[in-house]
Amino acid sequence: MSKEDVGITVSKEEDFSEWYTQVVLKAKLADYAPVKGLIVLRPDGYSIWESLRSTFDKKFAKNGIKNGFLPVLIPESLLGKEKKHFAGFNPEVFWVTHSGTNEIGDRLALRPTSETLAYTMYSKWIQSWRDLPLKINFWNTALRAEIKATKPFLRTSEFLWQEGHTVHATQDEAEKEVMKILEIYKNTVEEELAIPVITGKKSEKEKFVGAVYTTTMESIMPDGKALQMGTSHFLGQNFSKPFEVKFADKDNVEHFAWQTSWGVSWRLIGAMIMVHGDDKGLVLPPNVAPVQVLIVPIYKNDEGKNTVLSKVEEIKKILEAKKIRVHVDDREGLSPGYKFNDGELKGIPLRIEIGPKDIEKESIVIAKRHNREKSNLRFSEIETIGTILDEIQKKMLENARVKAKTNSIDISNYTEFKSKIEKGGFFNAPWCGKIECEEKIKEETGADIRVLPFGSEDTNQKCIYCNEQSISIPIFARGY
């Protein structure tokens, strides 16, 4: 087996795009499907998604949100009921036109998003104030015609995501829900994936079509491009009116409801790969790692093998009793060095090395994946490995915050802005609030407003483009 078959052959710094693709494929997270724009999720990749799903489900449940299921096909006539929203997705929609060999009358869209379908059902389910709030989350796939410039997890024609849709009696209640969800997203991404995010609102130009406003969380990737990590939308009554989502209040007076929608996708996994990975491969935060501890037994003969494997089994049981996910690489015919490299490629957070000499010393060797530090740990200290994993998780977030900060620039001169945007990064630049300036900046530099951070209001500076009084300091960046 050649090195090209096993390890990463390009540098993250020198060829970021190729490095990313190799990590996805060689760490066995996903593979390309026979249809262009689609990928197959492999067990380790799906395990990470399941971990995120479990965390979100627990947090959603505490917020009174239940899971449901929606079919993938949506009639064209249904999409047309909310024309502005549908027009935004129309170029990306896959259409089903035949049933067997027979043409169908009303074309069926493969779900680009589910607002129209969900709210058709909600209008049937909601009659009075007693039915509110209605808060349902759907774990499903969405399909959008991303045939050009596809990249695993980041931009594919079909992707896993969750989309939540809630209905409320008052505007205030709905807007509070928007913020609750955004906070759940932020905390989960930072605590589970160790990725720092910035939260705020999208500009009018960049908001979700059909929303009154969109809140977002954005993160900067190591190549200087921004990645939208998740969004939470206040829909107002923009959907409740065309879809007649109404309720009778306590006085039997009918009102249109107030709504929200929100979602994250498996692009969170793509962000995790980019933020933490290195030239050896994947680097997984312990909280989401399918395997948190890899044990590599080292021996030369059958006598040593029996002694070492007996101790390995003892250590494995101690760790599993602590709910730590452990894998023993006892494959025959492969050297310890090969197993070390394989574990590093897959990003396993902590490796334990143990051989006869270690047993004599009543200790093991531990190697941390995120910084590749090695040290000795006595048998009596093995139960501290859970604490070590917690420290790794915390340190990975701290390191990511430092890197993100170095990729963030305060800037007020447009000439300087244009010269530096090529290298990428988050640019905190004053803006007058006019869409004309936003569009010109996008046209001339390729950078758009990623987020208007909460608390970024500012009237003391001049717009970076037109030099008129600013209203805020948004973050500009080129994005995925």
UniProtKB/TrEMBL annotation:
- Report what the protein is called: Proline--tRNA ligase
| Signal peptide boundaries | none
Q: Which SMART domains match?
A: ProRS-C_1 (SM00946)
The record's InterPro entries line, in alphabetical order, gives: aa-tRNA-synt_IIb (IPR002314), aa-tRNA-synth_II (IPR006195), aa-tRNA-synth_II/BPL/LPL (IPR045864), Anticodon-bd (IPR004154), Anticodon-bd_dom_sf (IPR036621), Pro-tRNA-ligase_IIa (IPR002316), Pro-tRNA-ligase_IIa_arc-type (IPR004499), Pro-tRNA_ligase_II_C (IPR016061)
Its biological purpose is as follows: Catalyzes the attachment of proline to tRNA(Pro) in a two-step reaction: proline is first activated by ATP to form Pro-AMP and then transferred to the acceptor end of tRNA(Pro).
Q: What Pfam families does the annotation carry? A: HGTP_anticodon, ProRS-C_1, tRNA-synt_2b
Keywords of the record:
Aminoacyl-tRNA synthetase, ATP-binding, Cytoplasm, Ligase, Nucleotide-binding, Protein biosynthesis
Which GO MF terms does the UniProt record name?
A: ATP binding; proline-tRNA ligase activity
Q: Classify the main location.
A: cytoplasm
Catalytic reaction annotation: tRNA(Pro) + L-proline + ATP = L-prolyl-tRNA(Pro) + AMP + diphosphate
Cite the SUPFAM superfamilies for this sequence: C-terminal domain of ProRS, Class II aaRS ABD-related, Class II aaRS and biotin synthetases
Entry's EC annotation: 6.1.1.15
